[in-house]
Amino acid sequence: MRSILFILISTLLGASILFEDDFSNEALSTLNWVARIDNGGSAGFSGGSASIDNTSMVYSAMLVHNMPQKYPDFTFSAKVVSVYPGAGLLFCLRNTDEGADSYAVMTGDGSVFAYRHSPDGATLISSKESPFVKKTENQISVSKKGERISVFCNGYFIFSFTDSELESGDIGLLAQPYISASFDDVVFRDETIDSATFTCFRDDFRDTAAFGWTTDGSGDAVRGDNVLKVTTTAYQEFFYGLEIPIGNFCMKTTVNPSGSDSSSLCGLFVLSGNTNLFFCINGKSQYSVHSDGQDPELEFIKRSESEGIYTLELKRENGELQFLINGSLVESKPAEALYHKAGLYTSSNAQALFDDFELIDPDGCDHFTSIKLSRVRKVFKIREGFETDILGRKINFCNSSLLFIRTGNQGREKGLRLRAGSTEQR
Question: Which residues contact 340 (CB under 8 A, 6 or more apart)?
Fold first, then answer.
């Protein structure tokens, strides 16, 4: 039922999913994929996932899906689970008289790798270490627009490369020699995603593991008990940041500077080019908005309900930065076109507590899924009687309603009837 409903919604809305497989139907998955395994190994479908066990010493093993139409621009995503590095996605796959030719993207040892696979072997195109790479389970996404291919891991941009030799082709799942891996939630669609697109990030600092974060400067940061405690001494400053390109965004955190020197600053920062912009408070209930090389100009904050604890919020929308404290706008200024790092900042002689950090995309948090439901704008009775849906079934619209659904990155809205009445097969 879920698959039928999803196909119905996608077709009615003109949604851009061209192929998907969650491997919940083993018989259907068997028809969707062709195994290419040489010199030992196996591939199969069970338990809601696909698996490849490659025992070959030399050759990679793969599951290939033939795309009836070859699309030059697309986004291809899948969840990849492997204890050891060497599993990932194939795309722009084409067969020649000499053998298979494709691009491949894989994760391993905290890094993401892009290769060109050809009959002559594999050539590394690009690689990058990233804190957004998890140890065993990762969602890998590649988005191709023309010659530019952008690579994402778990919803965050890692790197891009350009290559014009392989314009389009089939897609596949890959395991290198002596690698076992499982795969799930394969989605291929004709929309492309730019590098400033990201999955919304939240951290309550309950987990001692720091997924996604990088540190710069000097100081001590300890996670746990639902806070991040940052301590700096004289002449130290500390950056706790997320290295991803962002356009429009909303960044928020709760901060308590009560253990700091009264003149120490702690709060949020964004980086554009080589210049940091800071939005900070101090122990005197003052705030400052300033950039590298500028002396902070301090203004007093209106007293909060929780004395000494403040919620700082930094937004970028429509070319403007807005600075809010406890929900009240305190300042605004023109924004840069793009920022490539954002996070938490602490100056010298500080002992600050941070909690409930968020970095949100105001355009939505689910860019790596194709259909995003918006709130119900109108619900009303359409008309009584029977009509026929795209599957040839008679639909009773006596108890129907209309829901507007937002699709794609452009926020287009189209109407969709949600059937509350009965259906019958012709």
Answer: 243, 244, 245, 246, 271, 272
